[in-house]
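## Example record

The block below lists the input lines for one assembly entry, exactly as stored, with component labels intact.
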Amino acid sequence: MQELKNRIREEGVIRQGNVLKVDSFLNHQLDMQLLHTLAEEFATRFENEEINKVLTIETSGIAIACMVADLMQVPVVIARKTKTKNMNGELYKKTVTTVTKDEYDLYVAKQYLGEGDKVLLIDDLLAHGKALEGLSDMVMESGAELVGIGVAIEKSFQVGSKLIRDKDIRLESLVIVDDLDWRSNKVVFRGDND
Amino acid sequence: MQELKNRIREEGVIRQGNVLKVDSFLNHQLDMQLLHTLAEEFATRFENEEINKVLTIETSGIAIACMVADLMQVPVVIARKTKTKNMNGELYKKTVTTVTKDEYDLYVAKQYLGEGDKVLLIDDLLAHGKALEGLSDMVMESGAELVGIGVAIEKSFQVGSKLIRDKDIRLESLVIVDDLDWRSNKVVFRGDND
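Predicted C-alpha cells for the full assembly:
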C-alpha cells in the first residue's frame, strides 16, 4: 500500500527501542481520508468472506475498525481493557501479558460474540501481538469463526506476526516494516527492493 | 431523533443510580448504520460552520467522532487519558475530577490543536459533563475556536448540560433524556409529551 508507506516515510517518527510513532495520522490525530482508503483495502481483501462482525481493541484500533465495518455494513465490537460497572452480563475475559511483563485483561460481553459469528479482527499495529493473540483465542473459544486479522502496519522483526501465522490465522497487513533505524529515521518496508 | 429514541427504548437498560446502558448499539457493540445516521444529523446541524477538526475523548466517543469527521472531511483528534511514552512533544493537559472525586488527566499534543482551528467536540453521552467541560477549557485555552459540542444522548437531570450551556457553548444533543426509572425500566425523553 504505497499511500500508507508514503505517509509513514513523510510523518513517521522512529524512537529508540523500535518505536514507530504515527501520531499525526493514525493514532492521536486521524486522517479520515487515509483511514477510508485503508478500510477499502481491508474490505476488498476480505470480500466474499461473509464477515458479520468486526472486532477490535480499545483505543487505537477503533477508528479503522469502524471504517471497515461501515463499508461491510456489519457491527463493530470493542474489546475493553477495563470492566466498567455497566458491563454486568456474562463476559469473556483474556489476560494479556505484554513483553514488559505488564498484565491487563480484555473483556467482551458474551452476548456479542459466539457461535455463528464470522469475525474479522482489525487493529492499527502488529508488533509483539500479545493482545491480538489473546483476542484470537477468545474468538475461537467463543465458538465464533475467526476469518482473519487485518492490521495497517506490521513490524515483521517483532514476534507478533509469527505468533499469529503459527496459529494458521490469515493475516493481512497493509504495509510490512522490516526494519527501523532511529539514528537515521529510516524505515525499511517489505518490497522496497523488489 | 426518533430512531435513537426507539433504539434506547428497545435495547437500553436502566440501572440504579441513573445509569443508562446502551452497550448493544453505541458503546460496546456499535451499530454502524445507526452511527452513520447520527453522524449525518451532526453534520447537518453544524454545516456552514467551517469546522476543520473534530475532537473527542477516548474511548466511547471515537466511533461517532470518526463518522462525523468522515462526512465533514476533516481529521479527528483523540484526547487521551494516559500519557504514553510515544507522546513526547508538548502537551495540553487537563485534570478532570469526576462526581465520585476520582481524578484523571486528558492529554492532547499541542501540534494538533491551536490558533486557527475551528473545533467540534463530539461524545456519545453527556451526564455530569466533567470531561467535556475540561476539554472545552482546553480548546479555548489553546487559542482554537470551539464551535460547539455534539452528544448523542444528554441526560438533562445531571449537571453536565448546565455546565456547558453556562459557558455559552452551543450544545447539540440528538436526544435528551429527562428521567430514568430503573424500577420500571422507563425512559422519559424530552418532547414525549409535546
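Chain A has a mean pLDDT of 95. The helical segments of chain A are 2-11, 23-27, 32-45, 62-72, 130-142, 160-166.
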